[in-house]
Amino acid sequence: MEIKILGTGCPKCHALEKAVKEVVSEMGVAAATTAVRDVNEIARSGVLLTPALVINGKVKSAGKVLGKSEIKKYIEQERK
Fold first, then answer.
1. What is the predicted pLDDT for the residue at 79?
2. What string of DSSP letters covers the chain?
3. What number does CATH give the domain 2-79?
């Protein structure tokens, strides 16, 4: 599984990244987690608001910090 957190490095971006890493660890999911800070790469993803969560190439959320339960739900969707 490939998980990307898109954002320029603001506090909300860091909060989402931290939460995602905690959920991945708690769930025991084999996932490559990457923080994407490059504005051009973020734009190519079609994301206008950050932070954004992208799992397996699919934008799951943009413009807000997700709670752990929401992150877990999105990861479970992609595990099926």
1. 87
2. -EEEEE-SS-HHHHHHHHHHHHHHHHHT---EEEEE--HHHHHHTT--SSSEEEETTEEEEESSPPPHHHHHHHHHHHH-
3. 3.40.30.10
